[in-house]
Design a protein that fits this description.
The protein is α+β, with helices and mostly antiparallel strands and 160 residues long. The chain is 38% helix and 29% strand. It has three helices and seven strands; from the N terminus they run αβββααββββ. It has helices spanning 2-21, 67-83, 90-113; strands spanning 38-41, 44-47, 51-63, 118-128, 133-138, 149-153, 156-159. It has a five-stranded antiparallel β-sheet with strand order 5-4-3-6-7, with no helix packed on it. A two-stranded antiparallel sheet has the order 1-2. A hairpin with a 4-residue loop joins β4 and β5 (133-138). α1 runs antiparallel to α2 and α2 (67-83) packs antiparallel against α3. The protein starts with a helix and ends with a strand.
Length: 160
């Protein structure tokens, strides 16, 4: 019984660390160094097509759909632990699985309703080299200021 509880606790800790490990982000600021904003050719230099100067950086709040995931994981672990306390043999296994499923569903709903569902994000406006403007809203802090040279790639802005 003690060995089984220890294995379950180890599995729960491993699952939790994997979930939280997905939240880690790398650095976005390159210290102000130009890292290839220009492409060289034999006849002069041309700028990249989706590069430009940052015109505005604002912190905004956007709807978050990710709170339910963490709630589901925590609920599933708690439900599995509680279900494991019921019955013997195959009944215990069935109760553990049922508890994990029920806990996951309940935890998902609680996670979605926690707080107002809004998280901070950054809206960055870039005046591209071709004269057009691109506005991107991203969850990660781009580490940019007005006047910085940046590149728009997909739904993110990166310092050059």
């Amino acid at each position: 019984m003690i060995n089984r509880s220890r294995n379950f606790a180890l599995a729960a800790a491993l699952a939790g660390s994997l979930v939280l490990g997905g939240c880690a982000t790398g650095p976005y600021n390159n210290g102000g160094y130009n890292r290839g904003g220009y492409q060289s050719s034999g006849y002069g230099s041309t700028r990249c097509q989706n590069c430009g100067v940052v015109q505005d950086v604002q912190q905004v709040y956007v709807q978050d759909s990710g709170h339910g995931t963490l709630g589901a994981v925590i609920g599933a672990v708690a439900g599995g632990v509680l279900g494991n306390q019921v019955g013997k043999g195959n009944g215990r296994k069935a109760a553990t699985v049922a508890g994990a499923v029920a806990g996951g569903v309940v935890g998902n709903q609680v996670g979605k309703r926690t707080g107002n569902g809004e998280i901070p994000a950054w809206r960055v406006t870039v005046r591209l080299d071709n004269g057009q403007y691109a506005t991107v809203t991203q969850k990660e802090d781009p580490g940019l200021r007005v006047g910085d040279y940046a590149q728009v790639r997909g739904d993110h802005v990166y310092a050059m």
